[in-house]
Write a structure and sequence with these properties.
Keywords: ATP-binding, Kinase, Nucleotide biosynthesis, Nucleotide-binding, Transferase. The protein has nine helices and five strands; from the N terminus they run E-H-E-H-H-H-E-H-H-E-H-H-E-H. Helix 5 packs across helix 8. The protein is 47% helix and 13% strand. By secondary structure, the protein is an alpha/beta fold. The protein binds ligand Z5A and magnesium ion. The site of ligand Z5A has 22 residues, from helix 1, helix 5 and helix 9.
C-alpha cells in the first residue's frame, strides 16, 4: 500500500436514530477539514440487486426470508471492490448500515440463528469503528410515525434492538454506543471525536476481515 489508507466507519442503530443525518454531517465535516471522505449506504438500492431489495422493503414484492438475507449480503459484496479501492486511495468511507443490520434484522425473524445470519458476511471489509446510535422507542416515536416499509413496526424494532445488543458483546469489533437522544449537533460532536481517533489508528493498519 503506497499511502495511508482511509478508515471504514459504520453507523448502525434502530429506526429513526439519526444514522443518515449523522452520516451526511460527518462526511461534510471531514471534507471541510481537508480529509477525503465519502458516504455509502446499505442497502444500496441503485444496483440490480438493490432494486430487488427496494421492491421487497416497499412491499411491492415478496421474497423468501433466506433469499432476501442473501440478497442484502450480496449487495454488500458487489460493492467490496469499490470500497477497497477507495480505502486504499486514502478515502474514509462513512457507511449508513452494514452487515450488523443484516444480521440483526434477519435474526429477529422466527427460526433464524445469529450464527447462520453472520455466515454470508464473513470476510467483508472489517469496519475500524462501528457507532451504534442508541434511542429508546419513546424518543423514536417523537420523531414521527413509522413509515410504510416492511419492518417498520414497534414490536419488530424491539426484537432487532435485542439482536444488536447481542452483536455488541463481540469484543473483536470496535463498538461505540452513542446517545442519539441528544440534539443533532451534540451527537455530531461525539461521532466526529470517535471517527478522528479511529481514522488515526487505521491509517497504519491493514484493513481487517469481518468476523474472521
Ligand atoms: N436492512 C436489512 O434488513 N438487512 C440489511 O442487511 C440492511 C438493512 C443493510 C433499510 O432502511 C431497511 O433495511 C431497514 C433495515 C433493513 N429497515 N428498517 N427499519 P433504511 O436504512 O433505508 O431506513 P431509513 O428510511 O433511512 O430510516 P432509518 O435509517 O431508520 O432512519 P435514520 O437514518 O436512523 O434517521 P434519520 O433519517 O437520520 O432521522 C430520522 C428523523 O429524525 C428525521 O426527521 C431527522 O431530522 C430526525 N432527527 C435525526 N436526529 C435527530 C436528533 N438528534 N434529534 C431530533 N431529531 C432528529
Ligand atoms: Mg436512514
Amino acid at each position: 500500500m503506497a499511502g495511508k489508507r482511509g478508515a471504514l466507519i459504520v453507523l448502525e442503530g434502530v429506526d429513526k436514530a439519526g444514522k443518515t443525518t449523522q452520516c451526511h454531517k460527518l462526511v461534510q465535516a471531514l471534507q471541510q477539514s481537508g480529509r477525503p471522505a465519502e458516504m455509502m449506504r446499505f442497502p444500496d438500492r441503485t444496483t440490480t440487486i438493490g432494486q430487488l431489495i427496494g421492491a421487497y422493503l416497499e412491499n411491492r414484492s415478496e421474497l423468501e426470508d433466506h433469499t432476501v438475507h442473501l440478497l442484502f449480503s450480496a449487495n454488500r459484496w458487489e460493492l467490496v471492490p469499490l470500497m477497497k479501492r477507495k480505502l486504499e486511495q486514502g478515502t474514509t468511507l462513512v457507511v449508513d448500515r452494514y452487515a450488523f443490520s443484516g444480521v440483526a434484522f434477519t435474526s429477529a425473524k422466527p427460526a433464524f440463528s445469529l450464527d447462520w445470519c453472520k455466515q454470508p458476511d464473513i470476510g467483508l471489509p472489517k469496519p475500524d469503528l462501528v457507532m451504534f446510535l442508541q434511542l429508546n422507542p419513546y424518543e423514536a416515536a417523537l420523531r414521527g410515525q413509522f413509515g410504510k416499509e416492511r419492518y417498520e413496526t414497534g414490536v419488530f424494532q424491539g426484537a432487532v434492538q435485542e439482536k444488536f445488543e447481542q452483536l455488541m458483546t463481540d469484543p473483536s469489533i470496535n463498538w461505540q454506543v452513542i446517545d442519539a437522544s441528544q440534539d443533532i449537533e451534540d451527537v455530531h460532536r461525539g461521532i466526529t471525536e470517535h471517527s478522528l481517533k479511529a481514522m488515526n489508528a487505521a491509517q497504519n493498519l491493514p484493513l481487517g476481515e469481518l468476523w474472521k
